[in-house]
Amino acid sequence: MSSYSDTEQYRDCGDTPAARADLRQHTVTVVFQGHSPVAQSDAGQPAKYVGSMDLSQVMGALGLSLISVTPVEIQKRLWACIGFEEAGESLGDHPHLAMVYSDKDWLTQQNLHAAVQGALKGRRRVMVRIHSECILGDAFGSSMCDCGDQLRLSMDEMESKREGILIYLRQEGRGIGLRNKLDCLALQYGFDQGVKGHRRYSSDEANVAMGFDVDHRHYDVAARLMQALGIASTQLITGNPKKIADLEACGIKVEGALDLWTQGTSPRAMEEIQEKISRGYIYQR
Ligand SMILES: [Zn+2]
């Protein structure tokens, strides 16, 4: 069972290797003492017909705009893809995506929105990966980071478990955007506006040198999407304590965190992983 003390243990454990090792021995459980935002949709008044709200309405009550839902075939398996964004904050042609995997045969459904809405409703420990966009890693297979591996391994794991949600958030470059990220990457290789400099920067150092924080990402929009799908709790694929804390603050019950690992991670990506560990990430590897 879970308690706030577990939560505090998780938050505090990033300080010492011993505490981290202890954390790895058991499942981390986080409890939310809150209410369903769906039931408090209009100016704090309980929504009257929550049970009959369709996916678009539920998402709307959570401050999300549903753009579209469609089946998508990925390596011969069918996922349901939800395109969405925050209400009133258009992402243009690059909406967030939520890829839903379940036993449902999406192509035989009369109402795809209803099928997606109910596919994982009430399910506990649903495997969820909240993946922030990294176009070089995700699409080009860059070995500077392990983003592409994480994306592929997460989806493989969900398929093997026969359910899961991959939430793909458009916060490229840890939230600083692709334009700035490209400049940061150049700095990492020792180039400043194309001119060879006197030193190379680490990933974190490059962000700071460019005037950014190390990490600008937020996860509340992912939490709201998870609430719209009505999962009872999640098993989150992450080593990032802040991600868990952010979800908890938004009302998501996290019943475990795991990370996925491939032996093929490059030395360059390992440098970045070590840097993450130095600022509190916890891996079971
Ligand atoms: Zn990456």
Explain this structure.
This protein is 34% helix and 19% strand. The chain is built from eleven helices and nine strands. It has helices at 4-12, 17-23, 55-61, 112-119, 135-138, 147-161, 178-188, 203-209, 220-228, 241-249, 267-278, and strands at 64-74, 77-86, 96-101, 126-132, 164-169, 191-192, 195-196, 234-237, 254-258. The strands form two sheets. A seven-stranded mixed beta sheet has the order 1-2-3-5-4-8-9, sandwiched between helices. Strands 6-7 form a two-stranded antiparallel sheet. A hairpin with a 2-residue loop joins strand 1 (64-74) and strand 2. The two termini are 25 Å apart. Residues 134, 137, 145, 147 line the site of zinc ion (ZN).
Write the layout of secondary structure elements.
Layout: H1 4-12, H2 17-23, H3 55-61, E1 64-74, E2 77-86, E3 96-101, H4 112-119, E4 126-132, H5 135-138, H6 147-161, E5 164-169, H7 178-188, E6 191-192, E7 195-196, H8 203-209, H9 220-228, E8 234-237, H10 241-249, E9 254-258, H11 267-278
Parallel strand pairs: 4-5, 4-8, 8-9
Antiparallel strand pairs: 1-2, 2-3, 3-5, 6-7
Helix pairs in contact: 7-8
Bound molecules: zinc ion.
Zinc ion is lined by residues 134, 137, 145, 147.
